[in-house]
Amino acid sequence: MTDRETPKSYFVEVELPAGRDEVWDAVTQPAVLRQWFGWDYDELDVEIAHIFVNEATLRAPERMGWADGSYLEVSGDDDSAVVRAVREGVDDPGRYDAIEEGWRAFLVQLRYLLAERPRGERRTLYLTGASTWRQVLGMTGSTAATVTRAGTRVAWLVDGDGHLVVLAGREPLGSRSAGRFEVTVSTFGLDDSAFEVIRKRWTERWAPLARNAQVTAADTPAP
Q1: What are phi and psi of 127, to 5 degrees?
Q2: For 108-137, what is the mean pLDDT?
Q3: Bridge partner residues of 12 (DSSP)
Q4: Are 40 and 216 in contact (CB under 8 A)?
Q5: Contact 69/119 with Cβ under 8 angstroms?
Q6: Three-class DSSP labels, the chain
Q7: Mutual orientation of helices 98-116 and 20-28 as an angle, nearest 10°?
Q8: Of 139, 109, 136, 103, which Cα lies nearest the Cα of 36?
Q9: How big is the chain by its Cα radius of gyration, in Å?
Q10: How many Å apart are CA 35 and CA 60, to the nearest integer?
Q11: Each residue of 11-67: pLDDT tens digit?
């Protein structure tokens, strides 16, 4: 097996303004996981159950692991906690790894949930397609200097409507090359009519910007 075929190591860590027990519940209870993990599509609940209930194994009081040797752990006290997603493997910082970048994006969403305490059910839009960082940042009215980075390929901001927007690109932030992007817009507490306004707005922004542009919501299959 070559290094390219061997899983890449990663260590993704996020500090959270919530107690250890609350954070552990947030990473193990499906109802809470739905408020931050992934994005809405027609089988999100099935995916959460598969990853966190059926496939996860409790390896320590506050650590769960999977068959590939990766694990998620929580440490801290009653006031604050740290959550870590870890996998051992080849040390190759420049290599793109979808699972690693997924954890970076999802833990941003977890931190937002526990830090901002938004009210109501989360509803998301998941934008996919090929574009450049310059175009994607321009769509959000931001620049590389005004977004908050989470590693080299993930950045986030809160837009003018108060929604969390997580940007994840196949290319590193700052690259001029076009590549696949995944943009997750998290809204909370919107009724159907308000959500449709947001869906229309982001669709109109994204469609002319990205090649093979798609917008996924709870009523659509995964792209």
Answers
A1: -100, 130
A2: 98
A3: 85
A4: yes
A5: no
A6: CCCCCCCECEEEEEEECCCHHHHHHHHHCHHHHCCCCCCCCCCHHHHHHHHHHHCCEEEECCEEECCCCCEEEEEECCCCEEEEEEECCECCCCCCCHHHHHHHHHHHHHHHHHHHCCCCCEEEEEEEEEECHHHHHHHCCCCCCCCEECCCCEEEEECCCCCEEEEEECCCCCCCCCEEEEEEEEEECCCHHHHHHHHHHHHHHHCCCCEEEEEECCCCCCC
A7: 130
A8: 109
A9: 17
A10: 25
A11: 999 999 999 999 999 999 999 999 999 999 999 999 999 999 999 999 888 999 999
Residue 61: the pLDDT is 87
CB-neighbour burial class of residue 166 (10 A; exposed 0-12, middle 13-18, buried 19+): buried
Q: Cβ–Cβ contacts within 10 Å for residue 66, how many?
A: 16
- Quick one: average pLDDT of 196-214? 97
> Which of the four pLDDT bands, split at 50, 70 and 90, describes residue 166?
very high
Residue with tokens 């998941």: 126
pTM above 0.85, yes or no: yes
Percent of the chain predicted with pLDDT > 70: 98
